[in-house]
Amino acid sequence: VDRGIIERFERLVTEIQSVVPNVILVIVYHPQITSCPFLYMLPNAATITELIVKFSPMFFNIARKFKVPVIDLARTFNPYDSSDYGSSPIEPSNTSGIMIAELALHIIHHFEFGKEEGWLGT
Asked: Could you list the residue range(s) of the whole structural domain that residue 74 is in?
């Protein structure tokens, strides 16, 4: 990943933490791969996976540096399981929304912001 992207992301986290110190980084999930007619509007699955794999280490490194947690939705949602998605291939279902909320709630109750090295939730 280009150093400039990393530096801009670090500045963004710094700016956000100046207003809201307890930041949770979130790695985006894959869109539902088997969905039509939306599939033609999305990059192919291999491209999306490549981007997530390429940028995930940046999230983990920044989480360690800023001592914030990461929720990795790319490892949480199954892009082949329609029950993980709502009315479109880019929206979580009610069940997945609850899962995201439970991950965030777990972090809020158990993560020591600014003290722990970083935490991965999936």
From this structure: 3-121
The DSSP call for residue 114 is T
Q: Considering its fold, how many domains does the chain have in total?
A: 1
Nearest to residue 51, comparing CAs of 81, 73, 24, 30?
A: 30
State the Cα–Cα distance between residues 45 and 32, nearest whole angstrom.
Answer: 9
Q: Is the pTM of this model over 0.90?
A: no
The CATH number given to whatever domain includes residue 32 is 3.40.50
| Angle value at C-alpha 22, between 48 and 17, nearest 5 degrees | 85
Spatial distance between the Cα atoms of 87 and 45, rounded to a whole number of angstroms: 19
pLDDT tens per residue across all 122 residues of the chain? 788 999 999 999 999 999 999 999 999 887 777 665 555 566 777 777 788 888 899 999 999 999 999 999 888 887 788 888 888 777 888 999 999 999 999 999 999 988 877 666 65
67: left (phi over 0), alpha (psi -120 to 50) or beta: left
Residues contacting 22, CB < 8 A, separation 6+: 68, 108, 113
